[in-house]
Amino acid sequence: MEIIGKVEKVTYTSPDQRFVVIKVRDNISTELITAIGDLAGVPVGEFIKLVGNWDKHPKYGLRFKVEEYSIQYPNLTHEIEKYLSSGIIKGVGPATAKKIVEKFGENTLEVIEEKPDELLKVSGITPRKLEKIKESYQIQRGLKHLIFFLNAHNLPSGLGFKLYKQYGNAALSVLKEDPYRLALEVPGIGFLKADSIAKALGYSKDSASRLKAGIIYTLSTKIDEGHSFYPREMLLREASQLLEADVPMIENALMGLIEETSIIEKEISDIGRVIYLKNLYFSESYVGKRIGLMLEMDKIKPIPLPNYFNSFETFHLNEEQLEAVKLALFKRIFLITGGPGTGKTTVLNTIVKLLNSIGKKVTLTAPTGRAAKRMGEVSGVEAKTIHRLLGWNPETSSFIHNEMNPIKSDVIIIDEASMMDITLFAHLLRALPTSTRLILVGDKDQLPPIGPGSPFMELIENQRLPAIRLTKVYRQDEEGLLLLNTHRINQGLFPIIKQKQKGDFLFFHEEDPQKAYHWILELATKRIPNEYGLDPVDSLQVLSPMKKGILGTENLTIGLQNLLNPNTENKDKPKLDIRIGDKVMQIRNNYEKDVYNGDIGKVTGINLDEGTVLISFYGRDVIYNFTELDELSLAYCISVHKSQGSEYPAVILTLSTQHYPLLQRNLVYTAITRAKKLAIIIGTKKALAMAIKNDKPIRRYSGLNNWLNITQ
Fold first, then answer.
1. CA–CA separation, 317 vs 644, rounded Å?
2. What residue ranges in 320-414 does DSSP mark as E strands?
3. Cys bridge to 702: 208, 210, 228, 353, which one at CB 3.0-4.6 A?
4. For residue range 18-29, what is the model confidence (pLDDT) as tens digits?
5. β 467-470/47-57 pair status
6. What is the rounded CA–CA span in Å between residue 697 and residue 143?
7. What end-to-end distance do the CA atoms of the chain give, in Å?
């Protein structure tokens, strides 16, 4: 027997999701009937076809016992057109939907599902467009049941797109079997969201999968803060608080994770027992041991200083710079650090020219696209990001260059090395032949990397490694204060403030955050473009220490977007508030698109029919589906951390006592060193003084030197 009707209400769902009671309005009799069975995921408001038989319960009365069910798609032409116009199928917008329905009428969905090639008879549908429609329709069929399931449990429909992208047709079964997998495997779904999903699905608060996922989440949050590991006892306490479970229960779950080798427990000198995520343990221990091997090789078989060095013109170098060039030529690993204007670029260019003159192959690289682009411009030699240098194989989801396929180069020079985290450094070292020399150039006083560890800073401080600190400042504008104040801030001194017209370092004191907010908008959109002739989008970057609050990156970005790129309410606008001409930033690595965390681009096109956005990154166009826009954020105002490796003609930094937790000297120093021509600070002198005085960076737990010292 069959019944077709509209789901009015879900009245009961069993804890295991296998028994559901729903109320359905029968299409023929219009009566409200009760249906029972395995109906998990059936959404309120949807038309469904039920197959089964009537059953009379002694207590609950007459009910329709469902053996199988299916979703009923719209069958009236106006309903079908509305359905297709919703954007649910890529390649079909309102105009195309109208043409398709005019051609096939009430048979439209049947044609799309069973005879899709017939769509080629519709004006404007090409073979290429047809393939997109077919692919999208198949995805929607699988996605529809997943979204229905989510809606039935009051979970957001948008979650369905993420799950389907990760698991395909297996998404629903993964969700039912272990929602905590989502926290570990799906970008953008952390433990807290997975926990709320599991709660909605009836999972126990004390389930082993929940406790283990909570421990991994707690440890992962510490990794996000920059730690390579976390002390065992501290991890147990914090996980216990998060999960609201006793420490012994957490300890049992921790031991289970260690036995599964999901995490690694080790002893670190001066700290004690610590817990690593598995990949970070292998990365950090490998870096330490590999660098230790390079140092030992220098002892056993030192590289002599080349004879040609004395004949090479080095008169333009001071003593520090000359020593740096010498060490770079005969050490297997060497580090150069120095602030702006101390000649790092001069030293780098001298090393490159000298090595090239004798036929050595030199490879230049940097952690970010912006840093690599600038490195290439100042050296005149092509530079690549570390990711692009290593190459990415989408079929194996791994780098092309590794121990089995090393990079062919005599010397590799890494600029902006302070931005490189321990994981990326490990990948690079694995791709280095033992004969290749490594030179790291950076500024140890800047902020540490966004990712875990601080390898450049730690190696600079390790007395075993050859390193030079450049201190003499050459690049100095007698009229300007920018470079002078950069070094004053780094030395713990308050900057010199002279509010003269068109100065290169300005400070605007403002106690009221609301007024400071409007000051920033006024400067960014009017005064700087008018007085300095700088483009407010391409040549200016607003920076903030924090994400939230009136002076946070999110609020400032919204204000700047509305003034610099107002919404004209045209049709070229996707469902997310992103517009043609917007400045955007990639917020996590996407190896397949060859776009990485921190890359900044501009929106150059939006296609509603295709459901895509075109972004230009450093002259290279990249296509994003609407479902992938969570990988991007607007970039009119970004965090100081995200600005690392970049240079902008002008920078505006907001500093307020609201930012108290992050007010540190290296934060202000990093922000000001991003500016090439103009730096403006808006905030309070108290906040600026607090930051400059605080020269103690937040401790990062790292064992790099522990592993390095083991090789002695």
1. 28
2. 333-338, 362-366, 383-385, 392-393, 398-399, 411-414
3. 228
4. 678 889 988 788
5. unpaired
6. 47
7. 80
Question: 263-315 pLDDT, tens per residue?
Answer: 999 999 889 999 999 999 999 999 999 999 999 888 777 666 566 566 566 66
Of the candidates 77, 64, 144, the residue with the CA atom closest to the CA atom of residue 109: 77
Question: Which residues, including other chains, have CB under 8 Å from residue 114's CB and lie 6 or more apart?
Answer: none
Q: Which residue has the tokens 């490159």?
A: 352
Residue position matching structure tokens 């070229």: 572
**For a pLDDT cut of 90, what percent of the chain falls above it?**
44
**What type of residue is 309?**
F
* Three-class DSSP category at 605: strand
**What is the DSSP track for 560-572?**
HHHHHS-----S-
Buried residues in 360-369 as b, exposed as e (16+ CB within 10 A): eebbbbbbbb
Neighbours of 575 (CB within 10 A): 10
Instruction: Report residue 137 CA to chain centroid gap.
Output: 30
DSSP letter assigned to residue 523: I
How does DSSP classify residue 305? P
499 three-class SS: coil
- Pairing label, strands 620-625, 505-509: unpaired
pLDDT digits (tens, 9 = 90+) for 228-274: 999 999 999 999 999 999 999 999 999 999 999 889 999 998 899 99
Instruction: Report the relative pairing of strands 61-71 and 32-37 from DSSP bridges.
Output: parallel
Cα dihedral 310/315/317/323 (nearest 10): 20
**Structure tokens that stand for 592 in this block:** 């397949």
SS3 98: helix
Gap between the Cα atoms of 311 and 129, Å rounded: 65
Q: Which residue in this structure is represented by tokens 């979204």?
A: 147
Positive/negative CA dihedral, 313, 356, 364, 646: positive
CA distances from 345 to 95, 324, 337, 382, 410 (A): 56, 12, 11, 15, 20
d(CA 195, CA 306): 62
C-alpha 23/C-alpha 29 separation (Å) is 14
**For tokens 């690549």, what's the residue?**
384
Rounded Cα gap, residues 410 and 268, in angstroms: 35
pLDDT band at 73 (very low <50, low <70, confident <90, very high): low
Burial 161-186 (b: 16+ CB within 10 A, else e): bbbbbbbeeebbebbeebbbbbbbeb
Among residues 155, 169, 160, 162, the alpha carbon closest in space to that of 187 is found at 162
Length of the chain: 712
Rounded-to-integer distance, Cα 458 and Cα 495, Å: 28
